[in-house]
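Note to self: keep these together.
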Amino acid sequence: MRKEATLEQWKELYEVAANIKELKPWDYLWDIDIITLALPNREPICCSIMGGGGECFGVLAYIGYDAINDFYNMLERDDIPPEQMYRYQDNNVIACYFGSRDELTSRELKIIKDLGLKFRGKNNWIYFHSFKKGYAPYILDQEEVLQETEILKHLYMSLTAYIKKGLEVDFEKGNTLMRMYNPKDELWMNFEAPLQIPEKRHIAPVLEDELLISKLGKMKQIKRVWELDIAYLGSIINDKKYERPVFGRVCILGDSETGIVINQNMVAPTDDDIQTIFNVVIPPIMELGKPQKILVRDEYIYYILKDLCHRTKIKLEIKGRLNVVDSFIHEFSTFGF
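Structure:
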């Protein structure tokens, strides 16, 4: 059950965020200049400073190996439609924004009022969002407030060393500003270090139903290329059975040649992505036959389908733009059906 932070906990978070704002780190760093926090007994946290281009000021904290890997995938995948890039920021990310008053919800404005804080003008209003898979960005709960407070405190010390104390870091050569605890000397250290991008850990399920695999493998192969994706609809759903607003997502299978949507299924935050994908893909194969190839948008879905496609001799390929899927999402966004 969700537990809300106390006003005192919010106060501490706002204080450290205000301290970071005073440093104006966006005057010194671009969003690809990464600060890495290596906190004891935890996976690393990579912080990206937004605002170097003069728009959207803030700090994004990518927490853990998977979130960090998604961040770098987001930088590399310029072939994916912008509205579908959210998949690379939808989990284990906490954002601190310095925005305008009209960007805040009534709950966020109330916290600021209760704290007795006063902000004026554009890019001066501080607020925080957490990102969880299947959900829309949302106000932090107590655990996230405490976590973000710790992250920003360490980030402030790293930024101070870099901005105020002249610590040199050559970001252009692929280095990071690292903050790490030295247990031998019992000291926190800030230093330049090579940036290490973690290897992505993929889920690669193996179907254990040998009879089903045998049936699928014996199906006639049809001269068709299918597209499959779990796509973001760009809609937010408020459902009382969830503790936060839900991002509309749909698992959709389409025929690249005819443009026809073969199968689809809405995906709830509590649904199993693997089972959803199999439920969308397997019945059409049993009914229509095996396609020559299935195109998917990202490695996540690629590895979910890898064993199935290998054992049924269906080619599998990653392609950033999926015409049928993208057309469906565009029509949904335009007409709302």
